[in-house]
């Protein structure tokens, strides 16, 4: 716990200096003409070298185009913003040092509230592809961090004296408007939108809606999305726990993990609302538990992952919070042991932040049995 806490403070001290963050800082201007609109370029698309102008771009799954990760767009910026506020909020919670709360709150005001710097509550121009689309439904995967990192952070920071009634009103209004966009826009809630995606994208959409609805006190909508999690189990899991939609990807191990992560989050929301997603089985015998067990079977990096080889070396430590959360919920002590006995000593804040956060989940944030 001491090691995890020290790494948290190290990250929070870096976060104190890194912001503030604003969508208005990007170099490119969205088709709307407003830099307040979020904008990103789809990471696996590249110029067509056979065309003089490179248009339309073509897809190379699993191969990230560096142009999608620059300051010209917002995809790196939103990740940096949300992880910084997450670090500051938890540093405030555990240290009770108001400096972390004040900085985190200022970052939130810049991103969500101030007229000149705020993000408009839509993802109309997310993951655009030059020559093909100004924005695509897959852009909503970019904003998952506005739910899975930000909502708990806001709840924690709202305990600070620096958080005002106006802050509360404005953040509630922003998320209410964003939830409305998630439900009604063709890219998101429409019949061909992200809500209908059959792989991890669809589950992350469901998680955003469920968690924001719960955050806003809309329990009826949150319950509906948890129930929809059963459809995700029906359509995504085989009896052995494998996920065919993710096996198709060039990084099948990563996407198996990346699909389980939001579904576990939905199951945790279900716990709060009296709906059990943990033990639901589809007609094939597939389940969330089977999906997690498949990953546990191959937790040893030396084991031979049966699908694509492009994940090697596999980042198996990222799965450990899932083992702990599910292990506690389902009384699977072997999963809890797998998580708590993982060695995180070689990882650093500056090079291995995802693994450092996995350790933080295990040592600081979730109860162990």
UniProtKB/TrEMBL annotation:
Classification via SUPFAM superfamilies: Chondroitin AC/alginate lyase
InterPro entries in the record: Alginate_lyase_dom, Chondroitin_lyas
Every Alginate lyase domain range: 22-304
Top-rank taxon, per record: Bacteria
UniProt KW Ribosomal protein keyword: no
Protein keywords: Lyase, Signal
Pfam families: Alginate_lyase (PF05426)
Signal peptide residues on this chain, from the entry's feature table: none
Descriptive protein name: Alginate lyase domain-containing protein
Organism expressing this protein natively: Vibrio hyugaensis
């Amino acid at each position: 716990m001491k090691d995890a806490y020290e790494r948290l403070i190290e990250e929070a001290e870096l976060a104190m200096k890194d912001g503030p963050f604003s969508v208005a800082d990007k170099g490119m201007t969205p088709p709307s003409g407003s830099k307040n609109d979020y904008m990103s370029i789809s990471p696996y698309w590249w110029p067509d070298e056979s065309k003089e102008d490179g248009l339309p771009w073509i897809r190379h799954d699993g191969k990230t185009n560096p142009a999608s990760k620059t300051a010209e767009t917002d995809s790196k910026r939103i990740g940096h913003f949300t992880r910084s506020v997450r670090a500051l909020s938890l540093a405030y919670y555990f240290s009770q040092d108001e400096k972390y709360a004040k900085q985190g709150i200022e970052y939130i005001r810049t991103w969500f509230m101030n007229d000149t710097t705020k993000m408009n509550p839509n993802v109309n121009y997310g993951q655009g592809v030059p020559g093909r689309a100004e924005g695509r439904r897959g852009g909503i995967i970019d904003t998952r961090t506005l739910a899975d990192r930000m909502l708990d952070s806001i709840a924690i920071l709202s305990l600070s004296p620096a958080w005002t009634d106006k802050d509360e009103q404005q953040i509630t209004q922003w998320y209410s408007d964003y939830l409305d966009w998630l439900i009604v826009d063709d890219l998101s809630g429409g019949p061909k939108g992200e809500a209908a995606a059959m792989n991890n994208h669809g589950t992350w959409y469901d998680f955003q809606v469920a968690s924001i609805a719960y955050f806003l006190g809309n329990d009826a909508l949150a319950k509906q999305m948890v129930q929809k999690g059963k459809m995700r189990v029906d359509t995504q899991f085989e009896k052995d726990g494998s996920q065919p939609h993710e096996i198709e990807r060039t990084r099948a191990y990563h996407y198996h993990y990346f699909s389980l992560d939001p579904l576990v989050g939905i199951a945790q929301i279900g716990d709060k609302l009296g709906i059990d997603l943990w033990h639901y089985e589809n007609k094939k015998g597939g389940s969330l538990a089977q999906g997690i067990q498949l990953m546990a079977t191959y937790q040893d990096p030396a084991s031979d992952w049966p699908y694509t080889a492009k994940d090697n070396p596999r980042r198996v430590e990222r799965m450990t919070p899932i083992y702990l959360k599910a292990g506690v919920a389902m009384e699977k002590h072997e999963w809890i042991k797998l998580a708590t006995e993982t060695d995180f000593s070689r990882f650093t804040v500056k090079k291995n932040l995802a693994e450092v956060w996995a350790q933080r989940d295990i040592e600081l944030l979730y109860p162990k049995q």
